[in-house]
Write a structure and sequence with these properties.
This protein has one domain: Spore Coat Polysaccharide Biosynthesis Protein SpsA, Chain A (Alpha-Beta Complex). Strands 1, 4, 7, 8, 10, 13, 14 and 15 form an eight-stranded mixed β-sheet that branches. It has a two-stranded antiparallel sheet with strand order 2-3. It has a two-stranded antiparallel ribbon with strand order 5-6. The chain is globular and about 85 Å long. The protein is an alpha/beta fold. It contains nine helices and 16 strands.
Length: 260
């Protein structure tokens, strides 16, 4: 199966860095978060990627075009311009980079890469800003067992603030510290889908449609969207504080998503 990654958004909520580079190239531990995501999939044998480009997509192309050079030792003969490579530590990735439009929404981006997917084959899909210690094999096995069109990985939200039970007179009757988990499950990406999705839910022009809007809503309405509950680590890099937290985890050796 191939892995499709959304990497075309402008990353406005992390504009401190995204004004210089696309969000998936923002680094954690000296490597783009996109690389971290790809390593998670590679751990389970998935090394063919289709990356949906948009905002500053040329920078992602340049990153992979120079990937071999930047991950090996080289001897350069300046007189002849020749390179001699040594001690390669290059990952075995096969990457298809697709310009899906600067303003295209996520459903449209997925629609535009259909011709790069194998006919009749399931495929994987995720966002270019979320990392996890998810067991991809277990996710795929779950998807294959239920015989529905799509599976979305879900994760329980940790409530950000404590809550209070207050009387009409304003008396605090009970204070509850923020619970470790709530009853709310969110879309954590890491999808598995059957190619039938294109003929049933991505039929019309989806250029201005978010993946989380009509496609997912209609799948849920039809009972074709199944939830894989992930109880382990998951985090999305939405803002600079998230980047700082991920960086701290990486530097301290506590990067739970580093499963390779």
């Amino acid at each position: 199966m191939k892995v499709v990654i959304f990497a075309g958004g402008m990353g406005t909520r992390i504009s401190e860095e995204s004004h210089l580079k696309p969000k998936p190239l923002i680094e954690i531990g000296g490597k783009p978060i996109l690389w971290h995501i790809m390593k998670i999939y590679q751990k389970y044998g998935y090394n063919e990627f289709i990356i949906c480009l948009g905002y500053r997509g040329y920078m992602i192309k340049e990153y992979f075009n120079n990937y071999y050079l930047h991950n090996t030792d080289v001897i350069i003969d300046t007189a002849t311009g020749t390179l001699e490579y040594h001690q390669s530590e290059v990952d075995n990735f096969k990457v298809t980079l697709v310009n899906t439009g600067l303003e295209t929404m996520t459903a449209g981006r997925l629609q535009k890469v259909r011709h790069h997917l194998a006919e009749g084959e399931d495929f994987l899909l995720t966002y270019g800003d979320g990392v996890s210690d998810i067991d991809i094999k277990a996710l795929v096995d779950f998807h294959k067992a239920h015989n529905h069109i799509a599976t979305v990985t879900t994760h329980q939200v940790t409530q950000q603030y404590g809550t209070m039970d207050i009387s009409e007179e304003g008396v605090v009757r009970k204070f509850r510290e923020k619970p470790k988990h709530s009853d709310t499950w969110i879309n954590a990406g890491f999808f598995v889908m059957n190619e039938k999705i294109f003929d049933k839910y991505l039929v019309e022009d989806m250029t201005d449609i978010m993946w989380e809007q009509d496609p997912m809503l209609n799948m849920a309405k039809d009972g074709e969207l199944m939830a894989y509950r992930h109880y382990g680590f998951w985090k999305s890099m939405d803002a600079m504080r998230d980047k700082a937290q991920l960086e701290e985890m990486w530097e301290s050796g506590e990067a739970k998503w580093k499963i390779w």
